[in-house]
Specification:
heterodimer; A: 395 residues; Aspartate Aminotransferase, domain 1; Aspartate Aminotransferase, domain 2; 2 domains; seven-stranded mixed β-sheet; three-stranded antiparallel β-sheet; 14 helices; 12 strands; globular; B: 164 residues; alpha+beta; Arc Repressor Mutant, subunit A; Alpha-Beta Plaits; 5 helices; 21% strand
């Protein structure tokens, strides 16, 4: 009889199961439900990118690439970041092609953390940060963010969270699940707090292309003096509708990226070669046509975003205006239900799936995450049903 | 000039021509009157040229035959290709007519109820026109995709219902 408890790592076992996973199992049994729970674009990968990967297979490019990824792809990434966000990285030793931005998160944390080191993370935030920090032996220090501040990280709360054990800040904007963005002046205020400290910033900028209205993305590394303390994480999933390809990249000072690459080379070896060809096509065609596909997609999200904001208002669920990513994060406290109950009942009674906010941290409680990366007609139907649901359960 | 608002209106209507102006107004966070005015202006300028439904006639059990016809013509002095193109596109049988580069001049899409009907149109009406030098008729066997819409086969949403 095997004693698995004695075998398996306690630190990993102690991480609670994902709140999203639990919910997924319930939704999976209800194929007719309208899902606003999806964290990926509803657009399929533009065929030209698929075709570039297929062509690479035909030509026999089925081998390993450099640990860092193909140089041609790293060069294209460098041009892209310079062209779109005004940050410069040397393709030879400052850019590492990863298996999704997710691998970039893991590599950053493992490259930095000694047991007991603290990493600060805005709460609520994407589900992977806390487990990633824990797996690496670190301690996650949540920094609360609130709807009153448009879910921005404030300099005061950041300052209060820094201790002698602080190694890094994870800076994930535009934000999943809240849709918050940090404007240049807000980013500058965060930079001012960090100036003079030895705290590194892991800037998860996977939603950088998806900002709306007059908002534009400010890359953390573009703030003067911040490049040296920043790891920029990005990827192809959201902006190029390539989630399943698992293509991302990590950029930073060569001293840091070299250590990340050491882990990557012994665990992953390299990102899948066909995906690298697809990603290369995405960037090269985009650089040639001014990223027209991205612009069209962003306009479509923006139109749906307005429908969601107005629909939530009609339903009586307060929601701050999300200006990035493709999520709205309304407040459901007025219904008297917690987020798990709300989502569960909404699914049972109205066949609409949203993600309970508590899956994204304790401050996500009282909210639900609604993705508008789905068709207009489904969004409108779902909003009607949510309005009925809130009326029926109104107090 | 087309600005960002116009572009959004056009994209919304291209996605679904039945989208009511009130909904487009919601999508743009603008008053519905403003949207109505802009749509009217786009129609007046023929930027929006019409609102036909994309119908898959073969699924409607209607006998239809389509052919793409390559037409070589000799351009007329002072008029170029336009005058002869007009003589061709005025026929009701002609559903699309393009001036194209390459080995021939016009690409004409003709629709009829039978192969015979289309054949007669080409041999009696089209090829007998003055300035038409030659035609080559290609009957359409299957319409997979037209104007961005996939008619044969579907594209499913393969996404998982919930993901982080």
């Amino acid at each position: 009889m095997m004693k698995y408890d004695e075998l398996l790592c306690k630190r990993v076992r102690d991480v609670p199961p994902s709140g999203i996973r639990k919910f997924f199992d319930v939704v999976a049994d209800m194929p007719a439900a309208i899902s606003l729970g999806v964290g990926e674009p509803d657009f399929t990968t533009p065929w030209a990118y698929n075709d570039a990967a297929i062509y690479s297979l035909r030509r026999g490019h089925t081998h390993y690439t450099s640990n860092w990824g193909m140089l041609s792809l790293r060069r294209a990434i460098a041009s892209y970041l310079e062209n779109r966000f005004g940050v410069s990285y040397d393709p030879t030793d400052e850019i590492l092609v990863t298996v999704g931005a997710s691998e970039g998160i893991d590599l950053s944390l493992r490259a930095l953390i000694e047991p007991g080191d603290e990493v600060m993370v805005p709460d609520p935030a994407y589900v992977s940060y806390l487990p990633g920090i824990t797996f690496a032996g670190g301690v996650c220090v949540p920094i609360p963010t609130y709807a009153e501040d448009d879910f921005r990280l404030t300099p005061e709360r950041l300052r209060a969270a820094i201790t002698p054990k602080t190694k890094a800040l994870i800076f994930p904007y535009p934000n999943n699940p809240t849709g918050a963005v940090m404007r240049k002046e807000h980013v500058q205020a965060i930079a001012d707090v960090l100036e003079g400290t030895n705290v590194l910033v892991i800037a998860d900028e996977i939603y950088a292309e998806l900002t709306y209205g007059n908002e534009t993305h400010t890359a953390f590394a573009s703030i003067p003096g911040m490049w040296e303390r920043t790891i920029t994480l990005n990827g192809f999933s959201k902006a190029f509708a390539m989630t399943g390809w698992r293509m991302g990249y990590a950029c930073g000072p060569k001293e840091i990226v070299a250590v990340m690459c050491k882990i990557h080379q012994y665990t992953m070896l390299c990102a899948p070669t066909p995906g690298q060809y697809a990603a290369l096509e995405a960037l090269e065609s985009g650089l040639a046509n001014g990223f027209a596909d991205v612009a069209t997609m962003t306009r479509a999200y923006d139109r749906r975003r307005h429908l969601v904001i107005q629909g939530l208002e009609k339903a009586g669920l307060p929601c701050f205006e999300p200006n990035g990513a493709f999520y709205a994060f309304p407040n459901i406290k007025g219904t008297g239900m917690d987020s798990q109950t709300f989502c569960r009942k909404l699914l049972d009674e109205k066949q609409v799936a949203c993600v309970p906010g508590d899956a994204f941290g304790s401050l996500g409680e009282g909210h639900i995450r609604m993705s508008y990366a789905t068709s207009t007609i489904k969004i409108l139907t779902a909003l009607d049903r949510i309005r009925e649901f809130v009326e029926e359960h109104g107090k | 000039m087309i600005d960002r608002i116009d572009l959004n209106i056009l994209e919304a209507l291209y996605e679904d021509a039945r989208t009511p102006p009130a909904r487009i107004a919601q999508m743009m966070n603008l008053p519905v009157d403003a949207i109505n005015e802009r749509i009217a202006e786009l129609e007046r300028r023929k930027v929006i040229a019409g609102y036909p439904a994309m119908i898959n006639w073969s699924a409607a059990d209607q006998e239809t035959v389509e052919a793409l016809i390559e037409v070589r013509i000799s351009p007329q002095r002072g008029e170029g290709f336009d005058a002869i193109a007009e003589q061709i596109y005025n026929f009701d049988e002609v559903h699309s007519c393009f001036l194209t580069s390459g080995a021939y001049d016009l690409t004409v899409l003709v629709r009829g109820r039978s192969v015979k009907e289309v054949g007669l149109f080409v041999s009696e009406k089209l090829s007998t026109l003055e300035h038409v030098l030659s035609t080559a008729t290609h009957f359409v066997l299957k319409r997979y995709k037209d104007d961005g819409i996939i008619l044969e086969g579907t594209r499913r949403d393969y996404r998982m219902a919930v993901s982080p």
